[in-house]
Amino acid sequence: MPLAAELRGLLPLRPAGVLTRPVDVLTARRLADSLRADGVAPGEPAGARRTFSDLLVFRLNGDGVPPLVVKHPRSPRAIDSLARECEAVRSLAGDERLGAWRRLLPTIERCRLEGPLPLVVESALPGDDGDALLRRSPHLSRPVAESALAAIRALHRATGRTQEVTELTSDWVRPRLAALAAEIRWCREGDGADALPALRRLLERELSGRRLLVAWTHGDFHPGNLLLTGPQGALSGVIDWAGALPDGPSELDCLTFVLTLRHQRGGRQLGRIVADAVRGCALPPADRRLLADAGALAPDAPGEIALTLLTWLWHVAGNVTKSARYGRSRRWIAQNVVPVLTEVAAREAAGVRDARPFHPT
pLDDT for 177-231, tens place per residue? Predict the structure, then answer.
């Protein structure tokens, strides 16, 4: 293996930084000039940065006009992701059932994904990035979690219906398993290849015949996709709707938030957290209380481990789908994929069943 490829596999996943900044600033100026020529968005670019999902993101700040956020896709995957996001946000914005909830959505001002300078322009919602705020003020974790979970459950209730999910289970599970097999070499050979069918059997068995609230599901609902204002971190926006579905397993949004909040507070990778839950057949009591208080899981819902694993699957499949860098990072795979699939294989080999429903305690 060439040295450069070897190093890419060992280095942690981080957006590019100082070395790419001059190029990113120049690209942001070109994009801003193209918008100005179209008479769309006067203003100067500021804060250009690359994201994990192959986007260049910056703000346009102009005198006397509301600020805007510009997203420039840097790969075909990122173009597809932005196209899905535009479609989801526009559908939600036009859904009269949501009423005032739609104030949490950005407005799509321009979706130009063809040509040499593809981009999406959104209104800039007020507030600070939730990840950054909680790092500065960890004592706000509980009130922010309660507010965020209440808001996303309001979306679920407004757009959802409780139904048996047997016919939906394969659509929720199999394409995401296929994404892991396609993007992660470890999942195509040896223990990894054996573990994927074990996970499919577990999820389809435990979800079949169950009743869940099927609704608009964000798909990546974590603190970094929230905007928060004020001393208590009031929710002012929800962003990054590329993974949203109108008929998703809505409980996953709540589980994603609780699991990623634990990751942020403790510094442990999400895969390690989920593997511990699978091994111990339960989530930590504090996480269970948050979910119970939010009404995230009905009394007849499937066991919490099955839904935790489905949440993990959506999260890692979403990552490898939106950026090839995840599938190339051996460190990310070792911390977030291998531990979970190893525990799943051991659980299935031992014949452990997750028939116990989740009851709030």
Answer: 999 999 999 999 999 999 999 999 999 999 999 889 999 999 999 999 999 998 8
Q: Count CA atoms closer than 13 A to 15's CA, side-chain side.
A: 14
Sheet of 55-62, strand order: 44-50, 55-62, 65-73, 119-123, 108-112
- Is the pTM higher than 0.85? yes
List pLDDT tens digits, range 277-312. 999 988 999 998 899 888 886 555 557 899 999 999
In the DSSP assignment, the letter for residue 219 is S
Give the residue from 205, 224, 226 showing the smallest Cα distance to 302: 205
Residue with tokens 């179209």: 38
**Pairwise CA distance, residues 110 & 51, whole Å:** 20
d(CA 203, CA 17): 39
Asked if 37 contacts 3 with a C-beta cutoff of 8 angstroms, the reply is no
Give the pairing of strands 245-249 and 161-164: unpaired
281 phi-psi bin (left φ>0, alpha ψ -120 to 50, beta other): left
- Count CB neighbours of 17 within 10 A: 10
